[in-house]
Fold this sequence. Notes:
Helices cover 46% and strands 15% of the residues. By secondary structure, it is of the alpha/beta class. It has one domain: Rossmann fold (3-Layer(aba) Sandwich), CATH 3.40.50.10320. The strands form two sheets. The protein has a seven-stranded mixed sheet, sandwiched between helices. The protein has a two-stranded parallel ribbon with strand order 6-7. The model is unreliable at 2-32 (pLDDT under 50).
Amino acid sequence: MTKTTLHQKFLGISCLILLISCNKPIETKHKAHLNSHENKTLMAIFAHPDDEIIISPILAKYAKEGANIHLVFVTDGSKGVAEHANIPVGDSLAKVRSEEALCLTKTLGIIPPIFLNYTDGDLTEYENIYSLDDKINELFIKHQPNVVITFGPGGEYGHSDHRMVSNIVTEVFQREASNTLKQLLYYGFPKEYKNNNLKLKSKVGNWFYENWKTTQKRFLTYRIPFNEEDLKLGYKASSCHKSQYTNETIDDLLGIIKLTDHIIYLRPWNGAKEISTNIFD
């Protein structure tokens, strides 16, 4: 073998080693990013199955990044009759909505939903206020979430069940917050993005947007970006709620999110001056 051939062979091996060594950190970094929250737990607590639609893109985002996600629905949704579905009030509707919630969690790739099975519309009744406090407390003890997301004080669009869930989750959190249970976040739609001339495709979508309770952007210091892939998965998962919404309404609800430039805005319970792009910060 000539010196030239040996030199070429040596160069070839060196280049191969260099390529392997260069590629390896990239793969490791990518894998680390995907699993960057694998030891973290997020709990989202809402009144009815379908209330999670507005944050579905970041549920998809954090599931992809390895977080444990528990989605809690306080009521059975048994009174949420929609004209297009024509399912009567009662157990049959509650069963359908339970199946839809399971469809949603499977699509997002998160833990099956938790139902507390209160009757839809009855959370303001005196006895429910005290028992729900206990049940939320038990969930915190059992699942040890690091972060909890729920409605803001306005209950998204003023629904009494929504407001009561926000109130009681806040009450339990401020009593039980710890080194593990670090943060309570309220979903909020920035007042500055509200466009009163916006016309959506569906009657339901327009009603939601017209009645949406807004928050000044300066208070919404957790600003969680999501990408188009997260939005598409959120849309697919949200489409499980066929008893509640037509495809047009789902388009409208997730279209509202696009007004905020692919960012979900959240307000921390105890306020913050610095902007954060990660709920676990």
